[in-house]
Amino acid sequence: MKMMKETIDYYVDEMKDSTLYKSLAEVEKDENVRKELFKLSSMEKEHADFWKNFLQSRGIKVKKFKPSFTIGLYKVLRKIFGLAFTSKIMEMGEAKTIRKYYEFYREADLSEEEKGKLKKIIEDELLHEDIFHKMSSSEKIEHIRDVFLGMNDGLVEILATVAGLTGAYSGNPYIVGIIGSIVGISGMLSMAIGTYISVKNQRQVKEQKIFENRVLYELLDKKTGIEETLENPLKAAYYTGFFYLLGTILIVFPFFLGLNSTYALLTSATAAIIAWTISGFIVALTSGLSATRKILEMLITGLGAATITYTIGSLISSLLGISLL
After folding, report:
1. Secondary structure of the chain in the HEC alphabet?
2. N or C: which end of the chain has fewer CB within 10 A?
3. For residue range 28-85, what is the model confidence (pLDDT) as tens digits?
4. What pLDDT, in 10s, does the model give residues 120-129?
5. CATH code assigned to 2-138
């Protein structure tokens, strides 16, 4: 019964992908990419037909497919972030599909004809992953990681900072905002410099590998099989620092609105929750992880840090009698 439920999910996923690729193809301006997407749509429809026939041959009626919210979401992501980002998400999805189909191939009770067709489908999915990898490599997406790393660190560190300060200096939101801003600017510089040094070191290592590969090819007509993409250290530092600062602004801004410290902190926490939910969802999509689990992970760690520092700030204020009005 569980296997039949999984098979129904396979059919729905293939129909969803077929519809998605067709939708993306209809708005794609690059003719080569457009053809690839229409081709993928056709192949996914064939895969869906296989699962539909598989189910019907076992007496299970398949409901008519209806486009889901996810398809619209992908179209929005394509419009905002570009094809490279969207295709990276698709690539991750294909990787998960290949694993599921391989396990199904090994464990399910299939006829020889069904095994042959499923083997062909797995081969197609492997081809799809390669196509998406090429699409994602055609545009620069390496800085997506830097964007979310910077944003998340800014949110966590500055929310924890202002929470601790609110616990200690609850009567002066402006002081909390100013100190939080100073810490944020310091953190931005630290993150940007750290990212620059880290990426530069990684780039030097990769450049050496590329050189060795070139030497092997030119002298011995051999390749190591290593394909390295070189990230720009300055751009990585810029994206990390800028989005760290953006996270800082989201957190400290409410403390300059004339609210008392408690309401300002609650407003900051709400802004952080919204930002973590969005970034956690996108990170989950790009890494093939559970969106719910990733969002909860970010919320628990971020809000947990803020709660701890607020408690520490309150204790220090009570024990030492601090009162900054």
Report:
1. CHHHHHHHHHHHHHHHHHHHHHHHHHHCCCHHHHHHHHHHHHHHHHHHHHHHHHHHCCCCCCCCCCCCHHHHHHHHHHHHHCHHHHHHHHHHHHHHHHHHHHHHHHHCCCCHHHHHHHHHHHHHHHHHHHHHHHHHHHCCCCCHHHHHHHHHHHHHHHHHHHHHHHHHCCCCHHHHHHHHHHHHHHHHHHHHHHHHHHHHHHHHHHHHHHHHHHHHHHHHCCCCCCCCCCCCHHHHHHHHHHHHHHHHHHHHHHHHCCCCHHHHHHHHHHHHHHHHHHHHHHHHHHHCCCHHHHHHHHHHHHHHHHHHHHHHHHHHHHHHCCCCC
2. N
3. 887 887 888 888 889 889 999 999 999 888 888 888 777 766 677 777 777 776 666 6
4. 998 888 776 6
5. 1.20.1260.10
